[in-house]
Amino acid sequence: MSVRSLLRYLKQKRKKKHRHDGVATTPSFFNYVFTKRRGLDEALPSLEVVAIGSSLADYGFYSPSWTESFNFGLTSGDLSVALQQYEKVLRHAPHLKVVLLYSGVFMPGFNLACTSERNRLVLYKHFFAISYNEVNEIQSDAEQYVMKKIDDFPFEICDSDQGYIYDKSYLSNANISARAEKHLKENQREPDQMDYFLKLKDLVESDGKKFYLIVPPVRFDFREVLKNMRGEDLFEKFRSIMPLDRILDFYEDKEFTQSDFGDCDHMSRSGAKKLTAKIHAQISI
């Protein structure tokens, strides 16, 4: 290989490694995070129940149906983000009693800072003081670019209630097999992110609050693809840590139908209402 070819190869490799999806600089994402921050500020003084986690919480917890609750799901959030959501923000809620952590198949190994979605962490850091974890690929120039746009952006509140944002988009045209492969890859990634989960569990419980792991349902066809690709229990790492009565598992709940999903693994509004009602029925405050 010539020097020129080698330099071209290295340049392309670096570009691929540091590519990002661009979502972090869109007006919709700016307004999304801003709306979560403003809603949380209003909810904190009387907050009793909170749902955290990734977009599975964001789409799957219908907070308007549960008094003094808040949907603090953050799209693409990982276990490091969840830990800091509690540690840096939610511990200050004087009446908080219950923390619900939503987890999907991907969660055990998923590290947002090492994905193409990593620049979303810049806004999470700005609005919620969520630090980057020890292993991340966020570039300083990308961070500066996002922060520069923050200074010039006229933020608007999204149509929302108690952190549940009504105008949601779905991955309705996503390739199910490709999505399943991606989720399974994160499920098995090493080193995993379970130390953050242990720290979160211990911290919540040491504060005298109830901590539940919520495993939401996925659409039947997606679940079958996952099962065919890898048949073992995909939530074993959580089950080895959590008491069974603190895991609310709806993964294969047959009462959820096609209309309860906006795409293969995100709940529609009707699905979120149904799931939240089922969770509420199993938790006493």
- Taken in chain order, the helices and strands follow as HHEHEHEHHEEHHEHHEH
Can you tell me the residue ranges where pLDDT is under 50 for at least 5 consecutive residues? Answer: 5-20
Distance between the termini: 67 Å
Largest sheet: 5 strands, parallel
User: Helix content range of the residues, please?
Assistant: 40-55%
Give the class from helix and strand content and strand pairing: alpha/beta
Beta percentage is 5-15%
Q: Enumerate the strands of the largest sheet in spatial order, edge to edge or round the barrel.
A: 2-1-3-6-7
Q: How many beta-strand elements?
A: 7
Number of helices, counting only DSSP H or I runs of 4 residues or more: 11
Q: What is the rounded Rg? A: 19 Å
Mean pLDDT, all residues: 91
What is the overall silhouette?
Answer: globular
Structure description:
This protein has 285 residues and is an alpha/beta fold. 43% of the residues lie in helices and 9% in strands. The strands form 2 sheets. It has a 5-stranded parallel sheet with strand order 2-1-3-6-7. A two-stranded antiparallel sheet has the order 4-5. A hairpin with a 2-residue loop joins strand 4 (160-161) and strand 5 (164-165). Helix 2 (27-43) packs parallel to helix 5 (120-128). The radius of gyration is 19 Å and the shape is globular. Residues 5-20 have low confidence and may be disordered.
